[in-house]
Design a protein that fits this description.
Blueprint: E1 5-11, H1 15-23, E2 30-33, H2 72-78, H3 82-88, H4 95-108, E3 113-114, E4 119-125, E5 128-133, E6 137-145, E7 150-151, E8 165-167, E9 182-186, H5 190-200, E10 209-213, H6 234-241, H7 245-254, H8 256-260, H9 264-280, E11 286-290, E12 293-301, E13 304-311, E14 317-322, E15 324-327, E16 331-332, E17 371-373, H10 378-381, H11 391-403
The structure holds flavin-adenine dinucleotide.
């Protein structure tokens, strides 16, 4: 049974709530719960060659508090790695390094984080939220939900998910055996390309064939131009928030490659490997990349999958017979089921999407209690919302709100070089 009322309870300890946990002062009564036994970051997709798409300076805290003990630079100093890291001359770090850094921060914050705690339900009673895990209950004034998005599974294959057809964020990768198999990867975003590369390199055994299909017309690099990157500034996000929804939706669509493109050097490496394999080595696996293809249907025949794809260029249907289908089809943001009991307090837009105020608070009918959510407002706050680029700035806004103090400077500088709005 709960004893005291918390100021804030956070659900989920991925990077986003970890950043908030690192920025809220020790004096506040806060607790963050996560179902995992310890910090890990998309462990299913933790490949040796996977790199962050954002600078290591955009860590959990540095952009709003470079003096914080929870910075990546402090992690390097604490581990006697500082000079050696600089000698690597890198602007970005691998996902393995980012996970290790976050885990180190989570251990430093262990007094305010409880792992092995799956939130099952949240109810609102009188003046507080009551949060239920299997074994415990907590009372809190405010909530911050950062439980991550859900795998996006195409409707045509929803009923066939199993050991041979699965989403990229799946425990199936642990004991996967692709030796001698025909593999189809659906999706050519960064995760799709990483799975494609690791598959043909034999990470899960050497397959006979690997095909990657993407609905896009090519494997497109991330747009990392300096002017494009101005959209990952507080100034842009605050102005974007004030636009009407139709303009926001169009702008978000146009900015797709600013957030969802492939890491350019990774594409270069894959291309070079394919070139060397084709012209100088014995190709161990037959490889095919098919752009402009849309998954229409999957029929299972024994352990085989007969896949129908529409060629978006000539409109013809193509059939592929494969053993394994990996759906690198991204993620979707929807209300987590543990919030179902709160549903009638929430405000939705005409498309059924959650509505937020500028400070990442859900619009509700509650007077005194706040539900902050992180990574649920791409439609409201723009393409930076699911990215780590501005996570510390967003956490600083929430920390200021929760404490009622101006702990961090969050008002945009107005120093942007692109005057979209001013
Ligand atoms: C493979 C991959 C690589 C990425 N790389 C980058 C990158 O380089 N740069 C970038 O800007 N963005 C990147 N992103 C996008 C984004 O930054 C990450 O998805 C990030 O992890 C989002 O953080 P989060 O805290 O919202 O969610 P998550 O990291 O998904 O964490 C959510 C946590 O909540 C827990 N949880 C869920 N439900 C419950 C519950 N009921 N009770 C308790 N706990 C619960 C989960 O176990 C998990 O630990 C990447 C995304 C993926 C999938």
């Amino acid at each position: 049974m709960s004893q005291q009322i918390l100021d804030l309870l956070g659900v989920g300890v991925g990077p986003f709530n970890l950043s908030l946990a690192a920025l809220i002062p020790k004096s506040e009564k806060v607790l963050f719960l996560d179902n995992k036994p310890e910090f890990s970051w998309h462990s299913e997709l933790m490949f040796e060659d996977a790199c962050m798409q954002t600078s290591y300076l955009k860590d959990l805290v540095t952009p709003v508090d470079p003096t914080s003990p929870y910075s990546f630079l402090n992690y390097l100093v604490a581990h006697d790695q500082f000079y050696h890291f600089l000698n690597t001359d890198r602007k970005t770090i691998s996902r393995i390094e980012f996970e290790a850094y976050c885990k180190w921060v989570s251990i430093k914050l262990e007094e305010r984080i409880e792992f092995d705690s799956m939130v099952e339900d949240i109810q609102f009673k009188e003046d507080r939220f009551r949060v239920f895990t299997k074994t415990r209950e907590f009372d809190t004034k405010d909530l911050c939900i950062a439980s991550g998005p859900q795998p996006n599974i195409p409707a045509c294959v929803k009923d066939q998910i199993g050991p041979n057809i699965f989403h990229s964020k799946s425990p199936n990768f642990k004991n996967l055996n692709l030796q001698g198999k025909r593999v189809l990867i659906v999706g050519g975003g960064q995760t799709g390309v990483e799975i494609f590369r690791n598959t043909y390199k034999g990470k899960w055994g050497q397959p006979l064939e690997v095909t990657m299909v993407t609905g896009r017309d090519n494997l497109r690099p991330l747009d990392e131009g300096p002017f494009t990157n101005e959209v990952f500034t507080p100034d842009f996000v605050q102005n974007f928030y004030r636009l009407d929804q139709k303009t926001k939706d169009e702008l978000t669509e146009n900015l797709l490659l600013a957030s969802d493109g492939n890491t350019p050097y990774y594409l270069q490496e894959v291309y070079n490997e394919l070139y060397m394999d084709k012209f100088y080595r014995d190709q161990k696996t037959k490889i095919s990349i098919k752009p402009a293809r849309w998954l229409k249907q999957v029929e299972t025949k024994g352990s085989n999958s007969v896949v129908s794809l529409e060629n978006l260029l000539n409109k013809e249907i193509e059939i592929l017979d494969v053993d394994i289908v990996v759906l690198a089809t991204g993620f979707t943001s929807k209300l987590p089921s543990f919030m179902n009991s709160l549903e009638n307090h929430l405000s939705l837009d005409s498309q059924g999407r959650l509505e937020f105020d500028q400070e990442y608070r859900l619009k509700t009918d509650l007077d005194r209690n706040n539900i902050y959510m992180m990574n649920f407002s791409r439609h409201g706050h723009g393409v930076a919302d699911p990215q780590t680029s501005l996570m510390s700035w967003r956490s600083a806004i929430i920390a200021n709100q929760v404490t009622g103090k101006d702990l961090y400077k969050t008002i945009p500088s107005k120093n942007t070089f692109l005057n979209f709005f001013n």
